[in-house]
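User: Show me sequence and structure for the first protein, then do the same for the second.

Assistant: Starting with the first protein.
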Amino acid sequence: MKAQLLVHALTRQIIGTATSRGATHDFTLFKQSKTHVHPETKIKADAGYQGVQKCHLLSQTPKKASKHHPLMPAEKAANRQLARERLPVEHVIRFIKIFPQRYVSPS
């Protein structure tokens, strides 16, 4: 099972969810879920959402390096900054994943 969470970075509130089969690509799930995001809202997504800029202008994803085009130091710094800003969201996702394990009574 694949789950997509929209999380407010400051309040850590879950704003929206979408699910699909596990083999679904992240960006495909985003398109299929028809998640509406206000045009003035900034989206900071992980590398699985490459191409979201075509659907939503105020979105950021990390730059990807290739064999022939390595990242410049400024691009690496921008990727690190984006990762720092996304960290609270990743903590919420982690909590959702471990929550059932933590509260299951032993049999």
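Switching to the second protein now.
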Amino acid sequence: MAATNAATDIGFMTQFGKVVGAVFTPFAEITDFTPPGTSRDSVDFTHFGSPDYFREFKPGIADGGEASVTYNLVPGLLDDAAIAAHFDTRAVDTWRIVFPNGAKL
């Protein structure tokens, strides 16, 4: 029987945070997290000569989806400052998910 990775399979130790320059600031106490669900539009390329009277589709524009995170805000920690800076600017921010196996989104 293969060994289980139960702790990592349930997302234990997954990190979510903000990236500024090369510095990643993870949130301190994540209690719930839903990663983004990606999707892609399909574009109809059907024409009067489409083979066997079937519609033809090609991949369209991709959408990275939305993530949701619930965490305990601990005033005074770096994540508190990251959230405050996010609301004080109109810039597009870079956010990162780091999974227990080291994979990053």
